[in-house]
Amino acid sequence: MTKIQSVTNTIINQGVLPLYYNTDETITLEILRSLYKAGIRAVEYTSRGDAALSNFTKMVEIRNAEMPEMLLGIGTIKNVKQTEEYYKVGADFFISPGFVAEVAEFLIPKDLLYSPGCMTPTEIIEAENAGVTFIKLFPGNALGTGFMSAIKDVFPNLKFMPTGGVDTTKESIESWFKAGVSAVGMGSKLVSKELMLAKDYTTIENETVKVLAIIQTLK
């Protein structure tokens, strides 16, 4: 099995990809531990601040020491320079808010999963022709489940994951899976700024357990 397929399978099996960013290294690591304890085995850390690379490097170190099954992905990748930086420190997969052809050219020959954000059929076609197999529908709240339902038959060989606007409720999650997605990306609805500020890692863990349980009932 290729590494791309293995990472894809892990994300699909858990059905949700939690994503977050925090400037504080300790908070970043404690959230990672909470997600791992909840049963998460793939997580996206977003490159949205000056501390992102150093925090991610520490995450890889802690993962290697404490949670060998965890796959660490980096999000908000916009160019090859960023990609190379995170590749060097050991990112397992890469996610963009949009499709960047040069990033696909760098990652796919290395058997590394690249999931670009797409919101039009043209963008999806470009990504598919570049070898992408896992599409991030972004922003999910703007596109909606109707968009997914309308395009899924046109792209039978692709897997889709919406990010943005997916709630932790069964109704929200179920509507996306019924529309044809393989997983849902979940950021502030799951790991909220309030919970991070309060350092409420127990609630983050408990809410993640609930989401994983909901997804299992839908499969």
Structural summary, described in words:
This protein has 10 helices and 8 strands. It is α/β, with parallel strands linked by helices. The protein has one domain: TIM Barrel (Alpha-Beta Barrel), CATH 3.20.20.70. The protein has an 8-stranded parallel β-sheet, sandwiched between helices. Strand 5, helix 6 (121-129) and strand 6 form a beta-alpha-beta unit. Helix 7 packs parallel to helix 8 and helix 8 packs across helix 10.
Q: What's this entry about, in short?
A:
The protein has 219 residues and is of the alpha/beta class. 51% of the residues lie in helices and 16% in strands.
Write out key terms for the chains shown:
219 residues, alpha/beta, TIM Barrel, 8 strands, 51% helix, EC 4.1.2.14, carbohydrate metabolism
Any chance you could write out the topology, listing elements then pairs?
Elements: H1 3-14, E1 16-20, H2 25-38, E2 42-46, H3 52-66, E3 71-75, H4 80-88, E4 93-96, H5 101-107, E5 113-118, H6 121-129, E6 134-137, H7 140-151, E7 159-162, H8 170-179, E8 184-186, H9 193-197, H10 201-218
Parallel strand pairs: 1-2, 1-8, 2-3, 3-4, 4-5, 5-6, 6-7
Helix pairs in contact: 2-3, 2-10, 7-8, 8-10
Protein name: 2-dehydro-3-deoxyphosphogluconate aldolase/(4S)-4-hydroxy-2-oxoglutarate aldolase
Enzyme class: lyase
Subunit structure: Homotrimer.
